[in-house]
Fold:
Amino acid sequence: MRQSEIMKYRVILLLLVILIYGGISSGQVLHDSSSVNLIREGIRCIYNMEFTEAEKVYAELERRHHDHPVCDLYRGMMIYWKKFPLTPASPYRSVYEQTLHGCIEKSEPDKCPSAGYGTEYLLANLSARGLLLLFYADNGLSSEVMPLASQTYRPLMHSMKLTEECPDLYFFSGIYNYYRDAYPRVRPIYKAVAFLFPQGNMKKGIEQLEICAQRSMALQAEAFSMLAWIRMHFENDYQKSLPYCRILTEKYPSNPSFKGMYIKNLLLLKRYDEAEKIMNMHSEADTNSYYLAQICFFKGLLQEKKYRNHGRARELYRATINAMLVFGEYGKEFQSYAYYGLSRITQSDEAKQEKRVYRRKATELSDFKKMTFDD
Structure:
């Protein structure tokens, strides 16, 4: 899966936060307000790439709830964002997988201290599975995705029965309903797996995500990012995706994924001045190597579309292709954009074959064939 798909494959990324609310309602481990506030602050820090503070939260969680699966879950989330983008070659892959498998093991039904802990242990288990699925899917590891997705289906369906008690859970039912039908159309390799699960409902999925965005206690950011992704990539409705992208960037200015998506959205709307302004607003995101590789493409597009400097645009597009190589599957989305750009600015009759080669490479790398920046 392309890195660009990271936004829609959050799937159960913040069930951690719902776990907090599950703990409150059932009066179990995370029932005290100080722990709730601690984890809320920790998650805010993780999203905004403030890892020194996030580490302090982790240390305190370990002290208070050492044997609870929430500690492994929080650590897995922290590793994911701190080492973003996490690739199969990363030295942190093994600790990431071990941490989340540890969470799954600790939260299996036979490990529950009593029946009263069932909900929070179920949600911890699902969360860990979701974070593993996120990593495998982001990196195109379909052989890892398929068996884990099949194993996760039953507990996920069980959790959906809790939506009326907790509006945050509309996030997961919304994702299932939309992507069960939409995603196999984009990535046919997953059709065989999708066939094993009940039919979804894309319209209902959107409605459920909207409910989550409006009523969620904890998953508002996730709902915003998912709706932005759907509107932008599946439906090519860039006007509808923009408000969500803006909210996320304003709330988490140092998050490289949110900032990059916002800039891309503005460029798709041809709002070049606004995009350039956001690019020049420095934040912690500017230290992220993947974000900097995206910026290389954004600068190339501005040179092509705004400044009409095709020579400089060509240099930046080629630099983007090279810069993205190190990110493997993560890099293919922006490589495709760069190849589309090279195809557009290759105009001479002598270069017709080269133009076709660029276009073919772009199409091969792209999942969303309408997102070319051609218009």
